[in-house]
Amino acid sequence: MRESEFWSAVQWTFPDGRGTSLTQDLVLFELGDKSPAEALAEGAAPQKVWEAMCRAMDLPEWYYYIHRVKPDERDRIAR
User: Could you report the per-residue pLDDT of 28-59, keeping only the tens digit for each?
Assistant: First the structure.
């Protein structure tokens, strides 16, 4: 997962600005008590950060790989 794919997944999964807020406000033990945005800024792998967010938000495991689904096909997937 590239960082651009991370941000695309965040925006699709948590639309209307909620994702951006979540990446700044959600502090995850799994990321060393950092927010996803802080972890990324410090060089954490985007896939690791995304999976930590998915677990924290109790999303189904298939969300871990949402970045592999073409953006125009994501709406066919139930949120």
Answer: 999 999 999 999 999 999 999 999 999 999 99
**In this structure, how many other beta carbons lie within 10 angstroms of the beta carbon of residue 20?**
14
Whole-angstrom Cα distance, residue 77 to residue 46? 22
Residue 17 sits at φ, ψ, to 5 deg, of 85, -10
Say what the pTM is: 0.88
Q: Residue 50's closest CA among 69, 31, 76, 33?
A: 31
- How far apart CA 73 and CA 3 sit, in angstroms, is 20
- Is-contact 3 23, C-beta < 8 A? no
